[in-house]
Design brief:
The structure holds 2 protein chains of 2 kinds. By secondary structure, chain A is α/β, with parallel strands linked by helices. Chain A contains 11 helices and 16 strands. In chain A, α3 runs parallel beside α4 and α6 packs across α7. The longest helix of chain A has 30 residues. An 8-stranded mixed sheet of chain B has the order 2-1-3-4-6-5-7-8, sandwiched between helices. In chain B, α1 packs across α7 and α3 packs parallel to α5. The chains are: A alpha/beta, B alpha/beta.
Amino acid sequence: MESVLKVTWKRLPLSTNFAIAQAVKDSDVDVVSAYPITPQTTVVERISEFIANGELKAEMIHVESEHSAMSAAIGASAVGARTFTATAAQGLELMHELLHIASGLRLPIVMSVAARALSAPLSIWGDYSDVMNVRDTSWIIIIASTAQEAYDSVIQAYRIAEDPRVFLPVLVAYDGYAMSHTYEPVYVSEKSDAFKDYIPKNPRWYTLNPEKPITMGAMASPEWFYEFKYQQVVAMKNALDVVKEADDEYGKRYERKYGIIEEEGVEGSDITFVTYGGLYGTLKESIEELRKKGEQIGLARIRLFRPFPSEMLADIAEKAKALVVLDRAITFGVNISGPVAREIISSLYARGIERNVYSFIVGIGQRTVTEKDIIAIYEKVKEMLASHERQKESIYWGVRE
Amino acid sequence: MMAKPYFRTVYDVPREEYLAPGHGLCAGCTAGTIVKLLLKVAGPNTIVVNATGCVEVSTTPFPYTSWKVPWIHVAFENTAAVASGIESALKALKAKGMIDPAKRINIIALAGDGGTYDIGFQALSGMLERGHKVMYVLYDNEAYMNTGIQRSGGTPEYAWTTTTPVGKILKGKVQQKKPIAEIVAAHRIPYVATANPGYFADMMNKFKKGLEVEGPSFVHVLQPCTTGWKFDPRYGIVLARLATETALWINWQQEEGQFSVTVSVPRRKHVKHYFELQGRFSHLTEEDIEKIQKEVDLEVDRINKLVGRTVIGPLVE
């Protein structure tokens, strides 16, 4: 029996950015390379303070761009260091080339992203356009909805990334501003070594070591390249179980767990709402109002965007008459333009489940979404459902056409 | 009194090979020579970060590799940033006792002219400014040879490339070669040098020095390219020597701010001897060549003044 370390928690008022920094410290990260960008910056400011005060023993690389931030993270991880970086929006886009390389080299880097809209026009405010663009890079993508969950998820992320069944980088996302700069009570460990058995320092991935020289990042001809990519497909598939196990184990040890999908009242619901990130809080509050009137409404929050929990979503859909998906990003040029809505539709198709899926685009560039909006969306969906109306195109909620 | 150089003759060159034969570099390519000698100097306790380019694609066609030391390729423009990450990580892991703190591991960033002068310049400048202990070796074949001879910031004036063709109006590259080693030296790092494989002992001593200094070092190596410069493959080393004999390429170093010319040229050759062996300059007229010769004469004066004595002699043939 593995002994479970008793953790003493302290309750601190922290923004999600500060909660992330705290998690980096408590994960005993070796190397941090990052570049300032709003609304991420206070993550690395706080980490710099931890290093300056000797609370975290790590090398901070003050790179000259996000491209170099990810490049340096790749170099550091390639010699076996536990590595962290943080970014948002344009910075994440500048890294994009290297996101594919980090996962292709199978390096367990962890990165946090304060999700933000993409230019142009310039917007420093929150939405998930940046995170959704990471979709096809073979990064595991966790989306947190509270500062506490962000803290716990970063620690879990190292366990997931460094698992030999996975060896893939992990991105932990959360709402820019609405979460990155909002203070919440967060339980953090009193001692920094509380997680050392949960995420032991034991680099098992391939590293550059003069005693055992290897070549990393070779050139693969058409005879070989495909198999490398397929191995990533398998690793991603494995990740679904590993994410679940990591969360279960975390729950067992530290008494907090989140699951892959947070759900509530989905059994026998007329309509189940699906969303991600901080918006879930607004959604919960709004639905309370409707439920008081006797409406049967389910709620589901996707915590894992990659690998996508298709089967779990199909299960949830089966229990409802219809799904409403609130997306905070747009994939341009297609009729159903909510990235998560599209994933759900294909998940249902694969299982042969016929359900109406209503895709709503909300909160773009941090356009406010209030309880009134949620209630109005619900009324609109009820109408469409009553008239058996199939949705032909996503609804751009609240836009001035 | 200068200390005697460590490498003086071919007998001083270590026998151990760390670049295995069988790579796919062109017959007559001098990049293989440079890398082979570089690794002989560095030895087995070395990690190499290689930019995308000729050396990278030619030495690592999966499942084969020519590298007997740990080697990584990440992308084209970020060699210096990857090397920075490796250096910082080794520092952190040593501090935490995860690797032996007494172990000295050389970190070498290896990139061509495109990956250094142009697309990799920002990452290089960042690495130098942050002071990572990395030796950056630039093998300069004066164009994007891996993609098929396109001009770079390192291509010299007048040179033909596929993107600076010899046409009715424009004849080769219009702009001058960027003085990259001087720009690097302006970062005030401990060691900057230029070298060429025609003077292999001088080049190897510079690699050795570059690995010894505490901080970033930069060795800029001229790399004659048979395919891109259009010369008979057997003339690679001849051309490397001619570049220095004509003073088109001066082998110098700057150590802790002290500038010196390490290969003096008492009797200087006319630049035409260098140009006439290369197809990329075959369109040059006598006037063009004389114009370049005058530019070289001025540069020689400047260098001699900088050193304080005549290290590059008068034109004699």
